[in-house]
Amino acid sequence: MASLLEMKEIFRNADAVCFDVDSTVIREEGIDELAKFCGVGDAVAEMTRRAMGGTVTFKAALTARLGLIRPSYEQVQKLISDNPPQLTPGIRELVSRLHQRGVQVFLVSGGFQSIVEHVASQLNIPTANVFANRLKFYFNGEYAGFDETQPTAESGGKGKVITQLKEQFHFQKVVMIGDGATDMEACPPADCFIGFGGNVIRKQVKEKAKWYITHFDELLKELEE
C-alpha cells in the first residue's frame, strides 16, 4: 500500500482523475433529490443510507429505490431545471487546474446520466467522460427501469470503468476521489483513492482512507507545490 507521500506524488503526476458525483462534485445525493421531488423522499433516503453503508448490493438498492420513485422523463427534466445540482465549493477551480495541466477528468457515478451530464457541462467535462446510470422511459415518458448493462449499475462498477479507461487510453496513474464505499472499492484498479468529506462524512471511508480531505482547496494546494 502506498504511503501518504507516495499518494500525493501519484496525484500530482496523474494522467486521469475520476470523481464520484453525488456528495462529492455536487453537494447533494441526486437520487435523494429526485425522490423528494417525486414525493417519496424519506423512504428513499433510508435506502440510500443502507446502500452507502455497504449492507446491500448497489444494484439491489438502486432497483428498490427507483421502484419507489418511478420518475417520469418530465419529472427528471423538471428537477434539473427547477433544482439544478449545487456544485461543491472549490470543484470548479480544481477541475479547471487539472485541465490546464493536461489531466483527463472523468465523472464516474452511480447517479443518473441526465443529471451528471448537466454537472459535466458546468465543469467543461466532455459527455464522453461521463459514466453513470441511464434511466429508461416508455414512449409516453413514464418510467421503464434503468439500463442494467452499465458498469455503474453494479457493486464494483466504478473499478470496472477505471480498468476500461486504463486499457483504452493506456493511463499509467489514475486517481479516484469520492465520499462513499463504492469509490474506495475502486482502488485498485485506481492507483490512489482520496476520500472526500466536504459534504457528508461516511465513517467507514474516513477511518480506512489513507488520504482524507474535507475541501478541494487541499488538492489545489498540492498542485501548486
UniProtKB/TrEMBL annotation:
EC numbers for this chain: 3.1.3.3
Active site, per annotation: 20 (nucleophile), 22 (proton donor)
Keyword field contains Mitochondrion: no
UniProt-recorded name of the protein: Phosphoserine phosphatase
GO cellular component terms listed in the entry, alphabetical order: cytoplasm
Upper classification of the organism: Eukaryota, Metazoa, Chordata, Craniata, Vertebrata
Necessary cofactors: Mg(2+)
An annotated Gene Ontology molecular function: magnesium ion binding
Keywords in alphabetical order: Amino-acid biosynthesis, Hydrolase, Magnesium, Metal-binding, Serine biosynthesis
Top-level lineage group: Eukaryota
Entries under Pfam families matching the protein: Hydrolase
Record function comment: Catalyzes the last irreversible step in the biosynthesis of L-serine from carbohydrates, the dephosphorylation of O-phospho-L-serine to L-serine. L-serine can then be used in protein synthesis, to produce other amino acids, in nucleotide metabolism or in glutathione synthesis, or can be racemized to D-serine, a neuromodulator. May also act on O-phospho-D-serine.
GO biological process, alphabetically ordered: L-serine biosynthetic process
Membership in a protein family: Belongs to the HAD-like hydrolase superfamily. SerB family.
Catalytic activity annotation: O-phospho-D-serine + H2O = D-serine + phosphate; O-phospho-L-serine + H2O = L-serine + phosphate
Pathway: Amino-acid biosynthesis; L-serine biosynthesis; L-serine from 3-phospho-D-glycerate: step 3/3
Organism: Balaeniceps rex (Shoebill)
